[in-house]
UniProtKB/TrEMBL annotation:
Pfam families according to UniProt: DDE_Tnp_1, DUF4096
Biological processes annotated in GO: DNA transposition
InterPro entries: IS402-like_dom, Transposase_11
Highest rank taxon of the organism: Bacteria
Annotated GO MF terms: DNA binding; transposase activity
Signal sequence extent: none
Annotated Insertion element IS402-like domain residues: 1-79
Entry protein name: IS5 family transposase
Residues in Transposase IS4-like domain copies: 95-240
């Protein structure tokens, strides 16, 4: 990360570190910036934990913090704070008033427990299913990861519950035809009007659907992070965490307008 990107994340990490002192009282052997660098590196390249470059902290230390931030919600706190800043930068209110719901089925690696995977009968694909709620700027509002055998209705209901709890300003949701009446009825109980965006039967070939195309764009952006090309995580919660970290990587780029350096230490230009 550049200095500008790190400054957007540093306050939350510094605060967390102050609230979680080491049992022995020391500050820790590794810089928190390098821990975050390692997590973002893995999300972007898709490498295994054990194959993190040697100039980054040991994978055991990196995974310790990844798991701790996953379990106490620090990863989502960082993500949500950045999302608010991106929305304000775009001239929007901090919280959205409408979301788009969609799901994506992905294959899993061999280390995924059988009880967390399943067969998606519609796509005839085995693995896990990711459900997201995104706003009109292509930012993630809520994430749910389940076995692929779970119906879109159940995922849609879980997403609406998360959206309503954290973003009470949302009053509208667009979905595809995979989400049935149960989602609309549940949304009505939460004060959210759920509308199914139907494909025009007379349209030939591919055509972006109004509103719904934004969720598809979010999935396309996430696929630039190779760790998400397949679900490699043992726990669905880790899969959700990796989505939050990948979106965090995208948002700090949007906020700072900086690109990742090819090398850590730029080669000086000869005079």
């Amino acid at each position: 990360m550049s200095d500008e990107r790190w400054e957007l994340i540093r306050p939350v990490i510094t605060s967390w570190k102050g609230q979680h002192p080491s049992v022995s009282g020391h500050e820790g052997r590794y810089e928190m910036r390098e821990i975050v660098n390692a997590i973002l590196y893995q999300a972007r390249t898709g490498c295994q934990w054990r194959y993190l470059p040697h100039d980054l902290p040991p994978y055991t230390a990196v995974y310790y913090y990844f798991g701790a931030w996953r379990d106490d919600g620090t990863n989502q706190t960082i993500h949500d704070l950045l999302r608010w800043q991106v929305r304000e930068q775009a001239g929007r209110a901090e919280d959205p008033s409408a979301v788009v719901l969609d799901t994506q089925t992905v294959h899993t690696s061999v280390n995924a427990p059988a009880d967390t995977t399943g067969l998606d009968p519609g796509k005839k694909s085995r693995g896990r299913k990711r459900g997201i709620a995104s706003d009109v700027l292509g930012l993630v509002i809520a994430v749910v990861v389940t076995a692929a055998s779970v119906h879109d209705n159940a995922i849609g209901i879980a997403l609406l519950d998360k959206v309503a709890a954290a973003n009470p300003s949302v009053t509208k949701a667009w979905t595809d035809a995979g989400f049935k009446n149960a989602v609309a009825q549940h949304g009505a109980g939460l004060g959210i009007d759920v509308e199914v965006v139907q494909r025009n039967p007379h349209t030939l070939g591919f055509a972006p659907l109004p509103k719904r195309w934004m969720a598809e764009q979010v999935y396309g952006t996430l696929m630039l992070h190779r760790r998400l090309a397949r679900d490699y995580e043992t726990r669905p919660a880790s899969s959700e965490s990796m989505i939050y970290w990948s979106m965090t990587d995208n948002m700090v780029r949007r906020l700072t307008g900086t690109a990742t350096s090819t090398w850590r230490d730029p080669v000086p230009v000869a005079a």
